[in-house]
Amino acid sequence: MKKLLLLVTALSIAVRLYPTLLSGLPFSTDAWSPIRNTELILKHTPVRLDSGILDNYNCYWPANSIFGASISIITGMKPIDAMRIFIP
């Protein structure tokens, strides 16, 4: 049972990462705005979320941009690379 669970988990991770590893780009078109916001957060920190620097839609859900900025800093990767791999 454990081997089956491990196989299913590994297969799920591989299927999720396959498109992004093949193309080098985020899989979802919805990812581009948070990636841009992450780059702006890293460039202009500290920044108010309602300052006008960020877009006027995704700034109301800052968790993925802040998580992307954190992962980018921790791993040393560019935000686009960090977010395409670590954010589902």
Total of DSSP H or I helical runs spanning 4+ residues:
4
Share of helix among residues? 55-70%
* Spans of at least 5 consecutive residues with low confidence: none
Overall mean confidence score, pLDDT:
90
Strand residue percentage:
under 5%
Shape: elongated
What is the alpha-carbon Rg in Å? 15 Å
Broad structural category: mainly alpha
**Series of secondary-structure elements, N-terminal to C-terminal:** HHHH
Overall domain count: 1
Secondary structure: number of strands = 0
Biggest β-sheet, characterized?
Answer: none
Short précis:
The protein is an all-alpha fold. The chain is built from four helices and no strands.
Task: Tell me what the structure shows.
By secondary structure, this protein is an all-alpha fold. The chain has one domain. It has four helices and no strands. The two termini are 26 Å apart. The model has no long low-confidence stretch (mean pLDDT 90).
